[in-house]
Design goal:
By secondary structure, the protein is an all-alpha fold. The chain has helices at about 5-30, 35-40, 40-70, 80-85, 90-105, 115-130, 145-175, 180-215, 230-265, 270-295.
Length: about 300
């Protein structure tokens, strides 16, 4: 039976940390100077997502500890919690995550995000928080020589997915601003155009690491039997949503973004923005659903382990 509270908290944590890292990374390659605060309110989002990440991480740890101990959250005693925190890789990953999220939350109260060096440092810290999630997934459980390969692949997969989700979140925020001035629309068009190369790299990393992870978790012998297991069915749904995201991203890149560029300052601006916003929202929703599936998949035994 699925542990829905644990799946829900994992889902929320993936979304929160993905947005945190993705938004910070987005401002490095797509926005300049005061645009980061004017268009995205970067300091506010950084602080809010960091604080939420701390709360979700703490509650998620209690949920995981309760599941390991076979009890409810109220049954997790201090001795057991301390042991899990200090004597397991999951615990150390959590402590590292809490530390960097605390630093991020405090730093957002200062002018550090206005300086490029500070922004780079905080983006690295957010990447560390995302990477720490790999220790609560299948990658950290793989034994033997393939263990390190799987863990590194998982980390890259998480970071690439977070970069995509964060970029989508940034685009939605920018095109949803009111009023939509030519300056804002030009910034949105420039950011969308600059995402073309970054997006291609992200997709390449997701596909490459996805193949590695699938080889280790599913195995060549089980590919044709994916529909026979819960894990396989969810993986197929995930791949379908990923294909939808690719189609929408291609439409944004080759049709809607050029259309926006041509419409700025003309009568068709509102219609071009509306079409782009609708596409971005659908793509973002598909991405959020994928994160939910990833959270669920992480609680199921993969086919390669003999699980169903």
């Amino acid at each position: 039976m699925a542990d829905w509270p644990l799946i829900a908290i994992r889902w929320a944590l993936y979304a929160d940390l993905g947005l945190l890292f993705g938004l910070l990374l987005f401002t490095l390659y797509a926005l300049a100077g005061e645009e980061r605060e004017r268009l995205l309110r970067l300091r506010g989002w950084t602080m809010a997502l960091a604080v939420l990440g701390v709360l979700l991480s703490a509650y998620g740890f209690l949920q995981s500890a309760a599941a390991m101990l076979g009890t409810g959250i109220e049954g997790v005693d201090r001795v057991s919690a301390l042991m899990l925190l200090t004597e397991t890789s999951v615990g150390w990953a959590l402590l590292a995550r809490l530390a960097v999220l605390t630093i991020l939350g405090i730093a957002a109260l200062t002018p550090v995000l206005r300086r490029m060096a500070g922004l780079v440092l905080l983006t690295f810290l957010a990447a560390t928080a995302v990477a720490s999630l790999a220790w609560s997934g299948h990658g950290a459980a793989t034994e033997g020589p393939a263990g390190m390969v799987h863990l590194v692949s998982d980390i890259i997969h998480l970071l690439a997915a977070a970069a995509w989700i964060g970029a989508l979140g940034a685009f939605v925020l920018i095109v949803s601003r009111r009023p939509q001035t030519p300056e804002t629309l030009n910034a949105a068009h420039r950011a969308l155009a600059s995402f073309a190369t970054v997006g291609a790299i992200i997709v390449g990393l997701i596909v490459a690491t996805g193949l590695v992870n699938s080889y280790l978790l599913v195995g060549p012998r089980n590919v044709l039997r994916l529909a026979e297991s819960d894990y396989g069915l969810l993986l197929l749904i995930k791949l379908t949503l990923f294909a939808i995201m690719l189609g929408l991203a291609a439409g944004n890149r080759f049709r809607l973004t050029p259309a926006l560029g041509k419409a700025i300052g003309r009568d068709g601006t509102a219609a071009a923005v509306a079409r782009l916003k609708r596409s971005l929202w659908i793509e973002t929703c598909a991405g959020i659903l994928i994160l939910g599936l990833v959270a669920w998949l992480g609680t199921l035994p993969p086919p390669a382990s003999g699980g169903s």
